[in-house]
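Human:
Care to share another protein and its fold?

Assistant:
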Amino acid sequence: MDRHIQIFLHRLSFASITIATLTLLLLFLQTPQTCVPPNSPPKPHLKFPRSTCDSSPRELVPLDKKNRRLWSSRAWKSQVSSFSHFFTSIRHLGLLHNHSKVLCVSAGAGHEVMALSKVGISDVTGVDLVDSPPLVSRADPHDLPFFDGAFDLVYTGHLEEALFPARFISEMERSVRDNGVCVVVVQECGHEEVREIADLFRHSSFVGAANVSLIGLRMTRIVMRTITCCLAGPSMERDPSYA
C-alpha cells in the first residue's frame, strides 16, 4: 500500500513540475502588451511603448518648454522675488553694483541667479554639483573651476550642507578678488555661531551679520570682505542690524 502511495506522489510531483515548466515557457515566449486600450483616442504628445520589449525612446519635453513651465509657477516666482529683495538689501549696503561679477555657489535650480539678473546684475554665474541649464552649471563647490579673484562677490545659502566647510569657504575666498565680498546665509543663529562661521574665513575680515527673512524662513546673513594679506582670523564687530 505504501509503495503505491509513493508511486502516486512521484507521478503527481512530476506532473506538477511539467505544468509549471510549460507555464513559464508560455509566459516567457508571449509578448506582453501595454494596458492602453486599442480604441483609446490618439494623443500625439505621448508615445507609449508598444510592448515591454519596445526599446524605442520616448518623446522628451524640450528643455526650454520645461523651463518655461517651471519659471511660470507661483512657487518659483515667489522664491525669486524673495531673493530679489535680499540682493537689493546687499546693493543698499554698497556691496553690489550692476557691473559686479557675481558667483552663486550651490545654486540649486538657480533662483538666486535669476533674481540677481532681475535686479540688474548682468554677469552672474551659478554652479552646483548637478547642473540646471541655463542658470546653473555643473561644478564642485569644493574645487571651483575659476581663476583666483575672478569675481567681485560670491554668495552661498548652503554652507551648512557642505561636506568640508573649511574647503568650501577657502574656494569662495580664492574666487573673490582682493577687497571683494563673500555673503553667506545660514539658518538663524546667535552671535557665537556667527563667530564660528566667520572664523572659517582665513583671508577675510568680518563686515557684519544680520537676521533676515528669505524664502519664508528666518535666516542669518554673514558678510565677509576678502583681504589677501590677512592671514589671521577675522575680527568680529557686531553689526547694528544684527539681533
Summary: Helices lie at 2-29, 63-71, 74-92, 111-118, 165-175, 191-199.
